[in-house]
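Incident log, entry 3
Record: pyruvate kinase (743 residues)
Problem: checksum mismatch between cached and fresh output.
Input:
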Amino acid sequence: MALLYTSSATSLTNPCTTPNNNVIQLVDMVGIDSTYLLRGKFLCFSSRSLMNNQHRTTTSSLSLNQMKFRVPRTLAFDLRRGKGEAGSCSRLEATFGDNTSTECTWSFDFPESKVELSHLESEARLSGSNGDDDVASVIDKLNALRSHLLAAEKWNASQLHLCDRKYLECATNLVHYMALRSLDIEQLNTHLNSLGLSSLDNNNLDVLASLNASINLLMNSSYNDQNAVTESWTKAYPKSKITKKNDKGKVSSYKESLLGKVCEGRSTHIMVTVGEEATLSETFITDIVKAGTSIIRINCAHGDPSIWGEIIKRVRRASQMLEMPCRVHMDLAGPKLRTGTLKPGPCVMKVSPKKDAYGNIVSPALVWLSLTGTEPPAHFSPDATISVQDQDFLAGLQIGDSVRLRDARGRKRRLRISKEFHVFSSTGFVAECFDTAYIESGTELYIKGKKVGRVVDVPSKESFVRLRVGDLLVITREGSLDEPSVTVPGAYSLTCPSGYLFDSVKPGETIGFDDGKIWGVIKGTSPSEVVVSITHAGPKGTKLGSEKSINIPQSDIRFKGLTSKDIKDLDYVASHADMVGISFIRDVHDITVLRQELKKRKLDDLGVVLKIETESGFKNLSLILLEAMKCSNPLGVMIARGDLAVECGWERLANIQEEIIGICKAACVPVIMATQVLESLVKSGVPTRAEITDAANAKRASCVMLNKGKNVVEAVSMLDTILHTKLMYKKPDSENPHCSASH
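Fresh output:
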C-alpha cells in the first residue's frame, strides 16, 4: 500500500524522490476507444534507471492497469521552492495490485500563484552553487515525461498495432504528441529555454526523439561551461541533421502519395474548385493549370456525372498537353444541411452601356456575338454574350452592319458590329450597344429589315430571397414554393431537403445561413416547418439562394457518416478521380463506415481527405486520424474554415486552425487550407492586405484551395507567386551606419 497526498490545485511542483530514487510518472489510463484521447491522468512509479534507458522498454514491476487514482491535469515545476513547504493537501490511497509490502508517503507542494520566470532570473540561479542540482532536477522531470509518453504508447499498443504498417510510426508519434499536449509543460519549457535548449513541443515530427535529445544533452554537459553545451550536443546527437532530413523526406513521401508531385521550384500545391462554368470555356482549365493549379476540386453537391465527366476529361487533356501534373479531387456532398432549390428565374439578360453621374452615356456596352459555345479571345472581356445557332447569319455579317431587335419590353434596340475575331474554326463579332436592353431567348435579330437570326441559350436569372433584420423566414420540408406559407403570412419561404433539420431543432436556438452571412433565431417548429426570425444581415439585406449552407451550432443533430447519395457517388469517384473528400466528419464511427465502403470496393490507392468542419470533428481529430490509419489509403485533412468558423465561433478559428495543423504535423498527414483564400481577388479582382498575409501563412500547409470566381486565373497566379517566393535575408553590414535603421 502506498499513501499519497494530492490537492485540487492546478499544478504539481517539486516532486520528491524516495530513498530508492524513484520518481513520479504521469500516464494515461484512457484507451483510444474512449471519448477523448489522454483525458484522465494517473500516477505510477518507475525506477530512474529504467526511465534513463533510451530504449522503448516499459517493463516495470507495477502494472499500469492496476492504478486506482487520478491527479490534476497539469504538470508544472517551481525550482525555487523547498521540498518541505507543502500546501493544503488531501489524502488519497493507491493500491499497486498484490505488491502491498512496500509503503511510502509522497508530499506535493502547491504554490498559491504560478511562478513567472524570466531569462535573467534563470541565468542567475543556474550560474550559482545550486546550478548542478537544478539541472539534475530538470533531467528528472524530463525522464518522468519520457516515461509518460512511453506509458501512453504502451497503453494504446493494441490499437496502434491495428494501424497499417506504413502509418504505425506516424500513429505512435501522434500518441506521444497528444500525451505531451495533455500536460502543462510551460514552466518546464521555460527552464529548457534558459539552458539554451528548444521547447519540447517544437519538433512535432518526432516528439520522443526531441525529448531524448534534451535528456542526453543535459546528462552529458556541464552548464557552468557554455562551450561544453555545443560539444555535448554533438556527442549526444551526432546524427540530428540526418534525422531532420529523414523526417522531411517522410513528410514529403506522404504528401506526394496523396497530392502528387509538384512542378520544379514549387513546394505547395494549389487546388481550385470548379463547376459547370468550366465546361463553357475551351481554355479555362488550361489557363488555371498553366497559372499553377496542380489539383482540380469538384463538389459532388453540385452538378451531375455528365458535368463532372466533362470537367475531368478537360483536366486530363490539359495536364497531358502542358506536361504539368494535375490531379482530380472530388468532395462527397455529405450530410450537410442546405437550402433547397428555388424555382429558376426568367431567361433574360440586361445589356447596359456605361454612364456618368448625370446619366449620360460614356461608352457603349460591348457584346460578344457568336455561335453557341464559341468563347471570346482571352484578351477581350465583353459586358454580355449573345449566342445564335445560324452559321449563315454570322457568315453574312460585316463590320459596320447594324443588327436590330426588340427587347423583352418591346423597345427597339440596335447592335453595331465593330470588330471581327476568328476563334479556332469559328468566327465571332464584337457589337456595340448604346441603349439599355433586356434580351431573352427567342429574341429575333434583323439586318436591313430582314430576319436573319434568333437569340438562344440565355441563362436563367438566379433566384433568391433578400433577407433583412426583423424578417421572418419559414423553412419547409421539401414543400413547393409556389404556394405561400399559411402559418406565417408575409414571411419568406425556402425549403430544406434534409429531414434532420425538422427533427432536431428547438425554439431559441441560433441558426446561420450561407457560411454565417445571415443569422437568425428559431421561433417555432413543427414536423414540416421551422420559423426563423432574422437577427443579422447586411444593411440593405442579404441574398439567400439555392443550395446555401445551414448551420445550427447549438443543436446536437446526429447525421449519418455517409449518405445514400455519397455511397452512390463514391462509385463514380473511385473510377474517375484521384482522391475523395469526406465531408462533415464527426467521430470515429464515420471513419469506420468509410473504411467498410473502401474495403468493399477494394479502393486501397484512392486518396482520402477528411474535411474538418464541425466542433466534434475538431475535438475528435486525433481519434479520427488513428482510426483512418487502419487503412492503407493516402490520407489528408482539409481545414474547411467556412463551416468551422460558424460551428465553433469566429473568435476561435485561428487557434483551432493552429491546433489542427499541429496534430496533423505530428501524424505526418498533409493539410489542405481551404475557404476564402484570396476571396476578394477571386470575386472582385483586388485582394485585401489581410488576404495576402493569410495566403503567405498558408505556406505551412501542403496545399491551399481557392474557390471559384471570375478572376480565379489571376488569383492562382498571385497565390503561386506568394507561396513560392523565397525570402532573402541580407546579412547586416556592421560598417554601414544605416544597416540597423528602422523603417
